[in-house]
Amino acid sequence: MGLLSHFLKGPHPKTTLLLTRAGPVKNPEHVLYSHPGLPLSEQGKQALRSLAGLARRYPVASVYAADSLAEAEAAELLAEALGVPFALLPELRERAWGEWEGLSFAGVQERYPEAVAAWLQDEAGFAPPGGESLRAAWERGRRAIEALLAQHRGQALLLVGNCTLNRAALSLALPLPPEEGLRLEQDYARLSVVEFYGEEGVVKALNLDPCPGVGGVN
Predict the structure, then answer these.
(1) What pTM, to 2 d.p., does this model score?
(2) Which Pfam families match (predicted)?
């Protein structure tokens, strides 16, 4: 059943989910990381300060993030700039990479060729040794975000996410399975906006740039 039948039932209170991604981080070797992760770089801090100006256009009630280094630092920075509370939740963490934590993609391919082959065959269901599958992290994130949306029904909330979490959030509005998540880029310190009417979501914006024309932050 499409959205038309939902909207024909009458007005619903609007809940606005703002999504951003903490970063750039201090990651010169471009390694895989999850929790506790890596700290924000100075460039990342400045980018998020700029993002706060864009986020002020929305009546944000609260900021949420994972309890990992960059996300926690970003949440505190943005909450202070917006004058709202923030909370850190373990269930909002990035996918756990297990034994692959701290390795580059090239390093993973060199050390775990058979596992990489299995990963390519089942992108969503494969879990690195000691780690978490994309599907498991995706579902964990969706459940956490659904709970936050229910808690803040009729309000706006800002979620400082990561690659997996933000795409899982977007999948609450779009028919997006985990293995297709990479088709929706989520840049550092950009703002994506999803408006929920009851249980149904509408994507309003992707990767809004607080400083257009200045250059990227990747």
Answers:
(1) 0.92
(2) His_Phos_1 (PF00300)
Burial (CB < 10 A; 0-12, 13-18, 19+), residue 181, is buried
User: CA geometry: angle at 170 spanning 53 and 25, to 5°?
Assistant: 55
Q: Which of 2, 28, 51 is nearest to 159 (CA)?
A: 51
Mean pLDDT of 4-30: 85
Phi, psi dihedral angles at 71 (to 5 degrees): -65, -40
| Contact (CB, 8 A) for 3 and 200 | yes
Q: Which one, of 174, 169, 175, 118, lies nearest residue 140 by Cα?
A: 169
Tell me which residue of 201, 193, 120 sits closest to 156, measured CA to CA.
193
* Cα 85 to chain centroid, rounded: 19
191-197 and 14-21 strand pairing: antiparallel
Q: How high is the pLDDT of residue 15? A: 96
Contact (CB, 8 A) for 177 and 124: yes
CB 15 within 8 A of CB 61: no
Instruction: Tell which residue, 48, 50, 51, has the closest CA to residue 72.
Output: 48
CA atoms of 178 and 123, how far apart (whole Å): 8
* DSSP strands (E only) in 32-108: 60-65, 86-88
Q: What is the mean pLDDT of residues 148-157?
A: 97
Share of the chain above pLDDT 90, in %: 87
Residues 6+ apart with CB under 8 A from 13: 153, 154, 197, 198
Enter the tokens of residue 14: 């609007």
